[in-house]
Specification:
309 residues, alpha/beta, Rossmann fold, UDP-galactose 4-epimerase, domain 1, 2 domains, 3-stranded mixed β-sheet, 10 helices, binds NADP nicotinamide-adenine-dinucleotide phosphate
């Protein structure tokens, strides 16, 4: 594929979107950002359609979302369902109108059942979403329904990459919005700076999660575009390994050099006990992909937050 392929990134100003935009541009693609702060509200179908039909991108990467911490998606549950449903409906309408465009969706793995030992793609529908993420997770499942229905009726092609907790540079620093690992890095970088003696961790620290460095995900999206990958079924972007919040805290403490004490505030919800994804589909499609080692990813994330805080 030549490198003048045009890509539109909805939500290209957000955490995941900005990293994808930077990676695609570094790889030579013609990338255009669509978000409210660049003058495109995905809730406005007519305006978004007009802008996209004028550009005629080959790929639409949909990183637009209203999302935040477990508390945020619970406290603002109705707003979260309302905005995200309407955005994904409009994204599919736009893709339908575009006819020959391909929609790439990062699908947060809160779409999976809350209680499951290993998240396997074929078992996505085998149980209820965890109550702590009901609002947001339901809309992520609906992405997969829309993918199937728009493919069936209109031949719309979409690629659904199911992703775990992502961390790394360019996340929001708003405590309601920051993603889990980044929020921990921020706490420890600030604690060292302020010479705090103690850091409070939200929840018990026991939940096990899979952690994906954001630049790895951006590299995968770029590979999908570059190699014109045709991924019909959802694919877990999976390492099949999980680390508890306590293990992550220890790794961050080592990097930042925090020697104070920890308190765990169990009044904050833990969410699902374990989220680890099966990697068989991933390895079949991306046999040579090398993930960033967790300690290196954390070190780069700490360096980023030291710079901006
Ligand atoms: N971060 C993670 O750990 C993680 C994990 C798995 C999956 N994901 C998925 O990755 C995607 C992006 O998440 P994120 O963490 O990057 O979120 P984020 O940092 O909150 O970014 C959201 C983006 O959506 C844009 N947006 C919001 N409302 C919009 C609207 N009405 N019209 C157009 N753009 C709108 C925002 O820009 P404006 O404010 O300028 O509109 C922003 O660019 C989501 O689908 C999320 O589920 C993220």
């Amino acid at each position: 594929m030549n490198n003048t392929t045009t890509v539109a990134v909805f939500g290209g100003t957000g955490f995941v979107g900005k990293n994808i935009v930077d990676m695609l541009r570094a790889d030579g693609f013609d990338v255009h950002i669509f978000s409210r702060s660049t003058g495109c509200d995905l809730l406005n179908l007519n305006a978004t359609s007009a802008a996209i039909l004028q550009l005629r991108p080959r790929y639409l990467v949909n990183c637009a979302a209203i999302v935040g911490s477990v508390n945020y998606v619970s406290d603002f549950a109705a707003d979260v369902v309302d905005a995200n449903m309407r955005m994904i409906l409009n994204a599919y309408k736009v893709a339908q109108q575009l006819r020959d465009g391909i929609l790439i969706n990062p699908v947060a793995n809160c779409a999976y059942p809350g209680i499951m030992d290993l998240y396997e793609e074929q078992h996505m529908w085998d149980g209820p979403i965890h109550p702590s993420v009901l609002s947001y997770g339901s809309t992520r499942r609906m992405m997969l329904v829309l993918a199937e229905c728009y493919a069936r009726q209109f031949g719309v092609r979409s690629i659904n990459l199911v992703v775990p907790n992502i961390y790394g540079p360019f996340d929001s620093t708003n405590p309601n919005k920051t993603h889990a690992l980044n929020a921990l890095v921020i706490k420890f970088v600030k604690a060292v700076k302020n010479r705090d003696e103690s850091v409070e961790i939200w929840g018990t620290g026991k939940p096990i999660r899979e952690w994906l460095y954001v630049k790895d995900f951006a590299r995968i999206v770029s590979e999908v575009v570059r190699d014109r990958m045709d991924l019909v079924q959802p694919v877990n972007i999976a390492q099949k390994s999980g680390f508890s919040v306590i293990e992550i805290v220890d790794a961050i403490r080592d990097v930042v050099g925090f020697t104070g004490t920890l308190t765990f505030n169990s009044r904050y919800p833990d969410g699902a006990p374990k989220k680890v994804m099966d990697d068989r589909c991933f390895r079949a499609k991306f046999p040579d992909f090398q993930f960033t080692d967790l300690n290196n990813g954390i070190a780069e994330t700490v360096a980023y937050y030291r710079e901006i805080l």
